[in-house]
Amino acid sequence: MSILSQLNSPVIYLICGCIVLFVALVCVVFAVRAYRAGKAIGMDVTKMKRAIVASATFAVLPSVGILLGVIALSGSLGTPWPWLRLSVIGALHYETQVAEAAAEAVGLPGLSATHMTAEAFTTIALLMSVCIMWGMVFCLFSLKAYTGRLNRPAGTKDSVGKKKNSLSGFGDIAMTAMFIGLVSAYIGSYLGIFASSQGLFSFRGTWLPLAVALVGAAAMWVFLQIRDRRQAAWVDSFSIAGSMLIAMTAAIFLGRLG
Predict the structure, then answer these.
(1) Euclidean distance between CA atoms 215 and 231, whole angstroms
(2) Backbone phi, then psi, for 241, in 5-degree steps?
(3) Which of 7, 73, 246, 253 is deepest in the core (most CB within 10 A)?
């Protein structure tokens, strides 16, 4: 039995499915309790139902990006594990990057079912899980204090008269800086490989990632232009998924040139 067949076995589906089902049930419980709490404090039931329908509708488009991530990872890690990671606490940009880094660390040329082994999968799965769990751990000890600081208006003073600035923008700045660093690292590595290659089309891997990145960036720019010029905030709900689809389609066509 191949490693991919083992990763797609009924036992793995059962284990991952039970965890996903439990998380889904928790979501339903909290949704019901939130609805009842809204009615208890006198919120308009019609507006609450409208908000529920709108949230469910707009949640469909961003989930396309998650589905693409599951499809992309299922070819090398099987379907159940990516489905579990991206359904519970995983993030599309995190899972794919960490899986690639872990594969390279164990000596694989990349995420490929051809080179995947049980030991490599164990290392990749462990790294994907351990690296992302610290957000939950830190929340147990620091979320209450951090939330209090976020809700404090800028310029308020503490007990000794010192001003305390609001940290409401820190999260956005940190995430932006992180993504800029990640993009710079990946683009820099591709530029290095491209610069050291012997010829422009000597190996498609030297130029294909750069071309696909440019196509994805151009697609995102178009989405942002539509959002800003048409005042269409709803475009944000599927801009990432749309850019990914366009970039993946470009990779297929451009790959034929290599």
Answers:
(1) 24
(2) -60, -40
(3) 73
